[in-house]
Design a protein that fits this description.
Helix content of chain A: over 70%
Helix content of chain B: over 70%
Number of helices of chain A: 11
Number of helices of chain B: 3
Radius of gyration of chain A: 25 Å
Oligomer: heterodimer
Order of helices and strands of chain B: HHH
Number of strands of chain A: 0
Number of strands of chain B: 0
CATH topology of the domain at 7-90 in chain A: Four Helix Bundle (Hemerythrin (Met), subunit A)
Low-confidence stretches of chain B: none
Largest interface: A-B, 100 and 74 residues
Radius of gyration of chain B: 17 Å
């Protein structure tokens, strides 16, 4: 295996090694960073490393899409939600809520890694010949993916558009407050969070005083959230 | 000659394991979600490696669809997280047990 690496050209080997180190360091950073914002930035690092590896493997279109969609849209969405919710504080990750869970999790991870490594270095799972077209030269990569998506996988592509519409509608439905709640919150008084009025899954939901008291007991972001909700209630 | 595919598969396995362990040990819902993205990326790397190894464009097409599904998943997941945090600020994965029997 080392001989295979040495057989590669020097620029290829250096590119792979650098990108691999960037990916792994970024991935560890996502898991180990205390602050969610740092996790998101480390995720960007890993995504860029993977994009470099895509270029190295002649998948230029996917590398561009990786940077634009993942680093440009998805991580920005993560950061937006982190800032919106006000959870951009460091947390104590050494506290272990469930005793003994972490060692077990790490053991499971190591076992899974060993299994996948065995698979990766064993026999190839398939020797099937290409059915959807061999890889062309790097210059034709976009052309070829386009051909593949719009001929062989046309149905999947159309279904994907339905999926995206459903996702957008679902996100809007999840994120907006029903008008009924806003009206009842107006009647009940401004200090009551509109969501708490119908918090049916919480045992103390029927008791506005206990709810308000428990809200006041919490700190910073909670108040910010409450203020946000109030201003939204008053706005119309 | 470029790098052998087994090296890419090894790297993808490492990334996937880090993501899986992170998903298991972290309690912040947002960070857990980022770990899912890590695992998706490891799978994408595997797809592209096999596309090159087997000389077949279908692997890259699969990554294209994975990207779309990941984007949809992030939109819906973050919507759910926003509505959970609105109801219970500062909630961790341990606090969200409303469906527990």
């Amino acid at each position: 295996m080392t001989s295979q690496l040495l057989a590669a050209t020097i620029p290829d080997a250096i590119t792979f090694a650098l990108a691999a180190v960037i990916c792994v360091v970024g991935a560890l950073g996502v898991v180990l960073a205390r602050n969610p914002v740092h996790s998101a930035l480390m995720l960007v690092m890993t995504l860029f490393g993977v994009a470099v590896l895509f270029v190295e493997e002649n998948a230029q279109f996917l590398a561009a899409v990786q940077v634009i969609v993942y680093a440009g849209a998805i991580v920005v969405l993560f950061l937006f939600v982190i800032m919106l919710l006000g959870v951009d504080r460091s947390e104590v990750i050494s506290a272990e809520p469930l005793p003994g869970q972490r060692p077990v999790a790490i053991c499971l991870g190591v076992i899974a890694l060993a299994e996948v490594l065995l698979l990766a270095h064993g026999q190839w799972p398939t020797g099937a010949k290409s059915v959807s077209g061999a890889l062309a030269s790097p210059a034709d990569n976009v052309n070829q993916i386009g051909q593949s998506v719009f001929t062989t996988y046309l149905l999947a592509f159309e279904v994907t558009s339905v999926l995206l519409v459903v996702a957008v509608v679902g996100a809007v439905v999840l994120a907006r407050r029903p008008r009924r709640l806003r009206d009842s919150a107006d009647l009940a008084g401004p200090e009551l969070d509109p969501d708490d009025v119908v918090g049916g899954d919480e045992p103390e939901a029927g008791d506005p005083d206990a709810e308000a008291a428990s809200e006041e007991a919490d700190d910073g972001p909670n108040k910010r959230e409450g203020a946000l909700a109030e201003s939204e209630v008053k706005a119309p | 000659m470029s790098i052998a595919a087994s090296w890419y598969l090894t790297l993808a396995a490492v990334l996937f394991s880090i993501g899986a362990v992170g998903l298991l040990i972290r309690r912040n819902v947002l960070v857990m979600f980022m770990c899912v993205e890590l695992m998706l990326n490891a799978a994408n790397l595997t797809f592209v490696s096999f596309a090159r190894k087997l000389n077949d464009i279908a692997g890259q097409t699969a990554v294209f669809f994975v990207l779309v599904v990941a984007a949809a998943e992030v939109v819906v997941g973050l919507g759910i997280i926003v509505s959970i945090y609105r109801r219970r600020p500062g909630a961790t994965a341990d606090d969200i047990h409303g469906l527990k029997g």
